[in-house]
Amino acid sequence: MVAQNEGPVPASTSPGKLSFVYGPTTRHDEESTKVGGSSPSEETPLSEGGVVTPILPISQQTSTAIIESIAPLETASSQITATATPLATTSVQAVSESSVKKSNGVSKGAVAGIAIGTLILGAAIALIAALFLFKRRNRRSPASSPSKLSPYDSSPELVSLSKGPTSYAQGVSQVPAPSDMAAVAAKRHVDLTDLSHSSDFLAGVLPQTADDRTVRDKVSMLFDQIQQHVENFYRDVHASITPSMESDLTRFGTQDVGMLELLQSSSMPTVAIKHALMGYVLKITSLEGGHDGTLFPADVTGVGAPKQFTGTPDLSAAYIIYKRLAVHLHSAVQSNAQARLSEIREAAEHFAITFFPWANPTYGDQEKDEDLVQLISSALDLSVWLHGQPFVYEFLWEGVGRRGIVVSPGLTKTTDLKGRIDEQRQVMLEPVVISI
Fold first, then answer.
1. Which neighbouring-strand residues pair with 423?
2. By residue range, what is the domain housing residue 202?
3. Mean pLDDT of the chain
4. What is the mean pLDDT of residues 346-370?
5. What percentage of residues in the chain have a pLDDT greater than 70?
6. E strands, 153-291, where?
7. Residue 144 counted as domain residue
8. Which residues cross the membrane (predicted)?
9. pLDDT (tens digit, 9 = 90+) per residue, 40-60?
10. Which of 238, 244, 282, 286 is nearest to 263 (CA)?
11. CA-CA distance, 394 to 404, in Å (whole number)?
12. Domain-located, residue 216
């Protein structure tokens, strides 16, 4: 059997003689073969033309083709192959030298076959290592590429690449952090009528903001009900005023209007009664109250009247949000409904007794009192509702005693969208004045 290698092949196994076949020749020159343990490497094989022509076995040609096919990959991974090739060559040399030294009983063909197999194995290992490193490099390339941002970067301004010595400082965000003063300024200028973008929680619990038309309609409806109550349950008659009645009637007057004089000198006492009832209902249901106290809930009043806060820019917006939250909590829990109703009934009876001489006998006292109770209750609800809006409202009583008597005050909006005092107050309703 011919060994698959490129070295000489033994031609016979007769004792004491070894004959090797070189190239395509079939001539055995036994005389030229040195006998007596001489090294086979000293033989001079001849072929046609006197040129040594070694025969490459078929397996050797296959090996050569494999090596040539993987040559481009070995070139591409020059660093890996350069490292693996010396190892393979060293292995081949080591195996060859070891095989030569120990070739007392092994042919040269076997030694050469082992060397070639080792070379092929080393090349295969180098190829596998190159493919592995190529895949690993491809995975790293998107993250390590200097021209691309990390997938975790959310803002391009946060990345600044530089080759200079100050690259570390430039890598920090170049966007200046907002100062505390800027943050305070932003809070001062928040739109108190629309907090949906500033806090989902506040937008969900604060009372809904009403437009100007809704505010005008609600207030106008209350004013109409108050005037209608006087028209239904009182009449224009001349009544005698006793000394015991004078002190009570005086409390319903104002600085510009004396209630006693109006009732005694006017031919339409109901106009003076409309003025008195309007002022009385709005006072006892307001935040500040009047001489007879206030029905406004104390838990909604909280820290006090708005005048001490709306004049300070740093506190105006906070107070607006505070009072709106107070209205929300009050509306959610109303445990003192009976006590409130009792106070309202007492206030209604006090007004009815004071103006009893001008009462319309067509209606009974109970019916008149119940209607006034409902009227005061509606006025209190409106007052609390206005307190829950992102503005501060005031009633305007100007013109009293000059052009006539104000039977329905005007309504003004004293603050702007930021909760600050508006020097140019917006007039929501004009006062209604009746000449007498």
1. none
2. 189-434
3. 71
4. 94
5. 58
6. none
7. no
8. 110-134
9. 444 444 444 444 444 444 455
10. 238
11. 21
12. yes
- In three-state secondary structure terms, 421 is strand
CA–CA distance, 413 with 211 (Å, rounded to integer) = 12
pTM score > 0.70 for this model? no
Q: Are 382 and 219 in contact (CB under 8 A)?
A: yes
| Any domain includes 155 | no
Q: Do the beta carbons of residue 238 and residue 247 sit within 8 Å?
A: no
Banded model confidence at residue 402, pLDDT cuts 50, 70, 90 = low
Task: Please say which residue of 112, 138, 164 terminates a domain.
Answer: 138
Q: How much is the pLDDT for 5?
A: 44
Give pairs for 89-95: CB < 8 Å, separation 24+: 89/119, 91/118, 91/122, 92/118, 92/119
- pLDDT (0 to 100) of residue 299: 87
Structure tokens at 179: 């100062």
Contact 375, 285 (CB under 8 A): no
Number of domains, the chain: 2
Q: Are residues 256 and 112 in the same domain?
A: no
b/e per residue 354-372 (b: at least 16 CB within 10 A): bbeebbeeeeeeeebbebb
In a domain, 153, yes or no: no
Q: How far is CA 175 from the centre of its chain?
A: 19
Rounded CA-CA distance 298/300 in Å is: 5
Looking at the structure, tell me whether residues 339 and 255 fall in a common domain. yes
Q: Taking Cα atoms as reference points, which of 310, 335, 333, 308 lies closest to residue 321?
A: 310
- Residue found by looking up tokens 């104000």 in the block: 406
Compute, in degrees rounded to 10, the torsion defined by CA atoms 156, 158, 161, 167: 170
